[in-house]
From TrEMBL:
InterPro entries: Apc4-like_WD40_dom, Quinoprotein_ADH-like_sf, WD40/YVTN_repeat-like_dom_sf, WD40_repeat_dom_sf, WD40_rpt. It comes from the Bacteria. Pfam families: ANAPC4_WD40, WD40. PANTHER family: F-BOX AND WD REPEAT DOMAIN CONTAINING 7 (PTHR19848:SF8), WD40 REPEAT PROTEIN (PTHR19848). Keywords: Repeat, WD repeat. PROSITE patterns: WD_REPEATS_2, WD_REPEATS_REGION. Residues 198-261 form the Anaphase-promoting complex subunit 4-like WD40 domain. This is WD40 repeat domain-containing protein. The keyword Repeat applies. WD repeats lie at residues 10-42, 54-88, 100-141.
Length: 625
């Protein structure tokens, strides 16, 4: 397993901040990031937080937690399937004390028991496990979910609450006698996913952040006390003030919301740079994650921002084309329009669309459409126009029959007027986030979602093509006179590819798809090269590799054996796009963009660009102008 190696430029992180955690006295803040690091900041002067230590994992870091009994111990949870236990003194270098390494999947959250000797870890496989930290002993499983377990919070009394994408809230007592069984666990089920939770400091109330934009306050017995309407977007994270008089909620629309204990709203801060995946409160301060290089710090009482990031990160999330320009959209909210001539970048024009991340791109002629994390669709044809907030992040876009189709985090297709960006129709489409849309010539589009399915059709008439063993990240199509080839990329580590044809009644038929192996981790993006009779499949993975397979429809075993690594990146691969000239552009979160072509000798890389060079070139052009 290679280590993330994104060059660091300036202070702070080189990729978005996934989690923030205050030390108990509020003097230090640990920030976790997609760049594979945890940075510890001295926040004694919150207007000028200072880096004091950097800790490294081999994959992105999802969370961290300070030990309640020993303020120099910090636990860090990573997608490399380990938890690091670090000693981080106020002065001097940090040292690695232990590694908890029997986890079977990415670890999403960790929480210490009050004794400071045991740690609960929750992971993507739904398990909540208890560990003896200093000797690294696995003790027991304290809970499980039917889908990803997203968060754990431990009360001052030692009660452990876990929440997950299955809508389950579970509270257990790890100190209960062995063999006490399910009766020792209290459960409450919701129809929506639950991604965040936090016990009050006194341990009498549990706040749970719901995907429908609400926060519930529950008793220790999980009896309902209060529901707070937070946002039209999902509520993602929550934490309590030191005296339990108020709590802060982060929502997917890029906003932070302050409420008092009775549920009355005190403040709202809207800032598209904020990543509300995590919030933390301590000693009169509130910290929030960011899509940029440093955390946001606020005054708990007034919500005034005390400090924030000073540098954008340009990790690419979406690719599209406008004429002979490649469009690259990413975390900074800028779209770079790059013209390539003779294998080299000849021009890079920045288009400033928003302050928050761009998740998806599509074009219609010279018009660019961008889907954002904050739930807006932005139109750019020389003038920027934005829709109203559509209620959820927009990870996918396509144009079909003169209508703009947006796939949402909530599993909906939104039909949007392409000229006015007015929402015309909201359609329940998938049972999970619509991660990818791809147009079909002649009408219709492909869709891939976290409900594990691939579908084809129109917004209202769709056919399921096949299903994966885990969520699906991307879908792509290659079309010809004899029909179409569809490929899909999944978190189950596989790519599936199959031939599909349009039926007389307007539906779609397909045979059994071939399954392509090679990736050691989730496959994030996929595309196709060549022709439908003998296509080449490209796929990019969280294991940092770009894979290719040569499909032989008559010999599925031969196709399976054909997989090879075409290139290695320094981070996970994020997106791909089929260019009109038959090549495929491939982008990684390390900022590399490669162009892949296929000839009689197979797939090969023609040339490579880097997003930082593109951004610097665009900056120089602006200065010269």
């Amino acid at each position: 397993m290679r280590t993330i190696s994104i060059p660091k430029s300036g202070t702070g992180h080189s990729a978005p901040i996934t989690h923030v955690a205050f030390s108990p006295d509020g003097s230090r803040l640990a920030t976790s990031s997609y760049d594979g690091t945890v940075i510890v900041w001295n926040t004694a002067d919150p207007a000028h937080p200072a880096e004091t230590a950097t800790l490294r994992h081999r994959r992105l870091v999802n969370s961290s937690a300070w030990n309640p009994a020993d303020p120099t111990l910090l636990a860090t949870a990573s997608a490399d399937k380990t938890v690091g236990i670090w000693r981080v003194p106020q002065e001097g270098p940090a040292t690695l004390v232990n590694v908890l390494a029997r986890h079977t999947d990415d670890i999403n959250s960790v929480a210490w028991l009050p004794d400071g000797e045991r740690l609960i870890c929750v992971s993507e496989d739904g398990r909540a496990t208890l560990w003896s930290v200093l000797d690294g002993t696995f003790l027991t499983e304290v809970g499980s979910h039917e889908a990803h377990c997203m968060m754990v919070s431990v009360s001052a009394e030692g009660l452990a609450a876990t929440v997950g994408e299955d809508g389950l809230v579970a509270v257990s007592d790890p100190a209960a006698a062995p063999g006490s069984g399910p009766a020792a666990t209290r459960k409450r089920h919701y129809d929506s996913s639950i991604e965040g939770c936090a016990w009050s400091r006194a341990g009498d109330l549990l706040a749970v952040a719901r995907d429908d934009g609400r926060v519930d306050l529950l008793t220790r017995e999980l009896e309902h006390v209060l529901t707070v309407e937070v946002s039209s977007s999902a509520a993602r994270a929550v934490d309590w003030a030191e005296d339990d008089s108020a709590f802060v909620v982060g929502a997917y629309d890029g906003s932070l919301h302050w409420f008092d204990r009775s549920g009355e709203r005190r403040h709202t801060v809207a800032d598209l740079r904020v990543w509300p995946r995590s919030v933390a409160a301590a000693q009169g301060l509130v910290a929030a994650g960011s899509f940029r290089n440093a955390p946001h710090l606020y005054d708990m009482a007034t919500a005034a921002e005390l400090s924030g990031p000073d540098r954008a990160t340009h990790g690419p999330n979406a690719l599209a084309a406008r004429g002979d320009e490649l469009l690259i959209g990413g975390d900074s909210g800028t779209v770079f329009a790059v013209r390539i001539e003779n294998g080299a970048q000849s021009r890079a024009t920045p288009i400033e669309l928003t302050d928050g991340p761009i998740l998806s791109l599509t074009t219609d002629g010279d018009t660019i459409y961008a889907g954002t994390y904050s739930g807006h669709v932005i139109r750019y044809d020389g003038t920027r126009t934005s829709s109203e907030c559509l209620g959820a992040p927009i990870p996918s876009l396509t144009v079909d029959g003169g209508r703009l189709i947006a796939g949402t985090y909530n599993g909906e297709f939104l039909v949007v007027d392409p000229a006015t960006l007015r929402l015309e129709e909201r359609i329940e489409a998938h049972g999970g986030s619509v991660k990818s849309l791809a147009p079909i010539p002649g009408g219709g589009f492909l869709s891939a979602a976290t409900d594990r399915t691939i579908e084809a059709g129109t917004a209202r008439g769709r056919t399921k093509l096949w299903e994966h063993g885990n969520l699906v990240n991307a879908v792509s199509g290659l079309h010809g006179p004899a029909g179409s080839v569809v490929a899909s990329a999944s978190r189950d580590h596989t790519v599936k590819v199959g031939r599909v044809t349009r039926t007389e009644d307007g539906g779609w038929s397909t045979g059994a798809p071939q399954t392509l192996l090679g990736s050691d981790e989730s496959v994030k993006c996929v595309s196709l090269l060549g022709d439908t009779a003998r296509p080449t499949v490209l796929a990019g993975s969280y294991d940092f590799n770009l894979y290719c397979w040569q499909v032989d429809w008559a010999d599925s075993a031969g196709t399976l054996a054909s997989g090879r690594v075409l290139a290695g990146f320094a981070q996970g691969l994020s997106c791909m796009f089929q260019l009109a000239d038959g090549r495929v552009a491939v982008a990684g979160w390390d900022g590399r963009i490669v162009f892949v072509a296929v000839d009689e000798y197979g797939a090969h890389i023609q040339h490579t660009l880097h997003i930082d060079d593109i951004a610097q070139s665009a900056d120089r052009k602006q200065v010269a102008a």
